[in-house]
Write a structure and sequence with these properties.
The protein has 13 helices and 19 strands. The protein has 461 residues and is α+β, with helices and mostly antiparallel strands. It has three domains: 196 residues, no CATH class; 197 residues; 27 residues, no CATH class. A hairpin with a 2-residue loop joins strand 3 and strand 4. The longest helix has 25 residues. The chain is globular.
Length: 461
């Protein structure tokens, strides 16, 4: 999702108050005037990582969808280092992270700086935490009212701390092997603006394009798995395990939970066979490429012990599974999630329901605590991406246990006993049963009725 924006007073040299060792000192390195300077820094890093020697044959490469991004300008390169070819990706954010203006430094939320705001208040509306900004130059009843402002309702200091958090997240993720190899992190000048720039090892595809390559709507016709066994094994075992390891590394090593973990933010590297299909071998690797601190946040209290870590990881897996169920009608994480300790405990005693006030499994209770926590963003992201208006956790957990809309499981979407999740097919079946029952009752009351019997016969077909 788009980064928030901050504006700042023009000083001598414009950016000097944010540079290392100066004023606020929030930027990790001095910004470059051009992306060519960032590129040269990355090449020096590549040279040191891959054994030195001469760099030669630097060129841009076209990789189709990898050249596109919702929030970034993306350019892919390759260069020869000694006897090997290194491919890497340069990303420059479309959105201005910092802008130099004539106004006071202020947080820019949804296009309006809060130095114009009369007050910034936090309110609770039907259980949902929101912010309202009321502007001085407008009537008191005119205000921006949206859950989206929740993450943007920062003070100046909080936003400047986020700049530091961005850098720390990217470098920690690189240190623990959770992101593609990082060759450069910093900023590029663009007139009065600064844009964030990262240069990473290039991967084959993002997970969204990868799944669209092997799964098409025409292959989803029933609850049976439409893929051939080799692809099933690759998804159900290799990719699923790597996603779990990725999220586990976040929570255990970085003490971090990431909320914007959509398939477009997951990248995958793999070899291809002669038909261009992925090969399941040791070269298949899954990483995350969005580590910005607005959506990847450190939570020491939610990663304090193994049960909290398991709960945090399980929730991130459930988010990904819901994406796979809704977007692709192919949730290959279902078996993995069913094997999680919290899920096994739930499936063994579904009478508790999915949102029970108490469950004997400690991890399950902690999942509920984190999901509904006032300091987390699972509910916001679920409403943003999945458009759930209510029962958010129940629907997500339920979808995470099924392959597609034809699949079912025994559990409590409504909170008790065995019940199948409602979908169009089951709703039509229920409606047919009700109609048939009603016609039978009417026929019994009125005697033989040819019209109703004919109608009943047609319905049964």
């Amino acid at each position: 999702m788009a980064a928030a924006v901050v504006t700042t007073q023009p000083l001598a040299g414009q950016y000097n108050d944010l540079l290392p060792g100066q004023g606020n000192a929030r930027l990790p390195v001095a910004p470059f005037d051009t992306k060519q300077e960032a590129l040269q820094t990355a090449l020096n890093r590549i040279k040191s990582l891959y054994g030195g020697g001469y760099l030669r044959g630097l060129k841009k490469i076209n990789t189709g969808n990898l050249s596109k991004g919702s929030s970034n300008e993306i350019v892919n390169y390759q260069v020869r280092v000694g006897n090997q070819t290194v491919k890497f990706t340069l990303r420059i954010n479309f959105h201005n992270l910092i802008k130099i203006t004539n106004s006071n430094r202020c947080m820019k939320a949804a296009g309006v700086c809060d130095d114009l705001a009369d007050h910034l208040v936090r309110r609770n509306n039907e259980g949902e935490t929101i912010y309202e900004i009321v502007y001085k130059e407008r009537p008191q009843d005119t205000y921006l009212h949206a859950p989206a402002i929740r993450r943007q309702g920062y003070t100046q200091e909080e936003f400047l701390q986020q700049i530091v958090g961005n850098e720390q997240n990217w470098h920690k993720a690189n240190e623990f092997g959770l992101s593609p190899q990082l060759y450069y992190y910093g900023y590029i000048k663009d007139g009065p603006n600064l844009r964030m720039c990262t240069i990473n090892e290039m991967f084959t595809s993002n997970l969204h394009d990868f799944l669209n390559k092997i799964i098409t709507p025409s292959t989803i016709v029933d609850g049976n798995d439409p893929l051939e066994p080799s692809l099933q094994f690759m998804l159900y075992h290799t990719v699923a395990q790597q996603l779990y390891d990725l999220f586990s590394g976040m929570a255990r090593n970085m003490k971090t939970i990431c909320f914007d973990i959509k398939p477009e933010n997951i990248v995958i590297r793999y070899d291809e066979d002669e038909h261009g299909m992925p090969i399941n071998n040791n070269n298949l690797v899954v990483k995350l490429i969005d580590w910005d601190a607005d959506w990847c946040k450190q939570y020491n209290h939610y990663t304090i012990d193994d049960s909290y870590i398991d709960a945090s990881v399980s929730l991130m897996m459930i988010v990904m599974a819901t994406f796979f169920y809704q977007r692709y009608q192919y949730n290959f994480l279902k078996n993995f999630i069913r094997s999680l300790p919290a899920t096994r405990a739930f499936l063994q005693n579904p009478a508790h329901g999915i949102v029970a006030s108490y469950h004997e499994n400690d991890t399950y209770n902690k999942m509920l605590e984190i999901f509904f926590g006032n300091d987390t963003f699972f509910i916001f992201m679920a409403q943003h991406y999945f458009h759930f208006d209510y029962d958010v956790f129940r629907y997500m957990y339920t979808y995470s246990l099924m392959l597609n809309r034809f699949d079912t499981y025994s559990g409590g979407l409504s909170g008790g006993g065995s019940k199948k999740i409602n979908n169009k097919k089951t709703q039509k079946k229920k409606q047919r049963k009700k109609t048939i029952k009603k016609i039978k009752i009417n026929n019994k009351k009125t005697g033989k009725n040819k019209m109703k019997k004919i109608k009943l016969k047609k319905i049964k077909k």
